[in-house]
Amino acid sequence: LRREAYGLRFEEGRTGDGQRIEVAANLGNTAHAADAVENGAEGVGLLRTEFLFMAHPDVPDLQTQVAEYSRAFEALDGRPLVARTLDVGGDKPLPYWPVPAEDNPFLGLRGIRLALTRPEVLETQLRALLIAAGARPLRIMFPMVKDIDEYRQARAIVDRLQAEIGAGDVQVGVMIEIPSAALLAPSLAAEVDFFSIGTNDLTQYTLAIDRGHAELSSQADGLHPAVLRLIQMTVEAAHAHGRWVGICGELGSDPAAIPVLVGLGVDELSVSVRQVPMVKAHLRGITQETAKRHATTALSQPTSQAVRDALEAL
Ligand code: PEP
Ligand code: MG
């Protein structure tokens, strides 16, 4: 099955009955963009730009960032790139950007909150992305957004830069990885171009389980019905406004979750490079009808174990 999946890796992501689901790759380094294409990725659904900031002793300058992002765009050869702006703080400290000691770093200065404390750093990154993209499809995504205020502040920088540099083929969206953002998806959907659901953090914050906890992290299961309901709300709000929704957390490559996510209506799955062929193979094996059944079954269960058992029994 592995070999067959690999042989069909350049086919478009589709269910067996033809519903289009884009399959993209998550990258932690632009050097892997060519490998993603070679594995059949239809784009990059999450570029974790932290690597670039971690690899330098200080904030990388404009030219350095332009060169890095350009490398990804060149390898992608016209495929879209979803670049997440700098997502540090919490579990991802940046040595040259110290954050005052916090009792709860996961609930502290991190993601877009931290980035907005030094808007000039965010602005340089956004400028580099826009310059590197030129006319190529760039999707900018802000991490750890809790409500529309943070989005508007960050978006205003993009709008200002676009007025200066030119518009290009750019969409601006947010990650849905804090429960408040999922609950408020209708208000966000009115203003963003897309959502990408970060199920790793969304699960952590919904279940109050540290995703890296030595004993508890196995219980941080994204197939929990509470997480699935938040995904459902997010997709419904997005589609009501004609926006697309991706999944960029690990749940997107969980074979038990794929039919559920398709049944909930997600439009894109972004997974690690090596998983792209397998995810496409799983999609070919389901239909919209079976996917709906999986979603309905999962949503009606009380625990993640019950979800997994019920899906297994279908
Ligand atoms: C997530 O939170 O699901 C996600 C994709 O982002 P990261 O794993 O980088 O926090
Ligand atoms: Mg995250």
Protein model, in words:
- The structure is a single chain.
- By secondary structure, this protein is an alpha/beta fold.
- Helices cover 46% and strands 13% of the residues.
- It has an eight-stranded parallel beta barrel with strand order 1-2-3-4-5-6-7-8, surrounded by five helices.
- Strand 7 (244-247), helix 12 (258-264) and strand 8 form a beta-alpha-beta unit.
- The chain binds phosphoenolpyruvate and magnesium ion.
- Magnesium ion is lined by residues 177, 198, 200-201.
- Phosphoenolpyruvate binds next to strand 2 and helix 10.
What's the gist of this structure?
It is found in: Cytoplasm. By secondary structure, the protein is of the alpha/beta class.
Walk me through the topology.
Blueprint (H helix, E strand, L loop, with lengths): L1 H6 L14 E6 L5 H6 L5 E5 L1 H5 L7 H15 L4 E4 L26 H5 L3 H15 L4 E5 L5 H18 L4 E7 L2 H5 L1 H5 L4 E4 L1 H9 L17 H16 L3 E4 L10 H7 L3 E5 L3 H9 L3 H12 L4 H10 L1
Parallel strand pairs: 1-2, 1-8, 2-3, 3-4, 4-5, 5-6, 6-7, 7-8
The structure holds phosphoenolpyruvate and magnesium ion.
What descriptors fit this protein?
phosphoenolpyruvate--protein phosphotransferase; 314 residues; binds magnesium ion; alpha/beta
Task: Please trace the helix and strand order, writing H or E for each element.
Answer: HEHEHHEHHEHEHHEHHEHEHHH
Oligomer: single chain
The helix-and-strand class reads alpha/beta
For the CA atoms, what is the radius of gyration? 19 Å
Distance between the termini: 22 Å
Spatial order of strands in the largest sheet: 1-2-3-4-5-6-7-8
Secondary structure: helix percent? 40-55%
Low-confidence stretches: none
Indicate the overall shape: globular
Number of helices: 15
Catalogue the ligands: phosphoenolpyruvate, magnesium ion
Largest sheet: 8 strands, parallel, barrel
Give the strand content.
5-15%
Mean pLDDT: 97
Record field, number of beta strands:
8
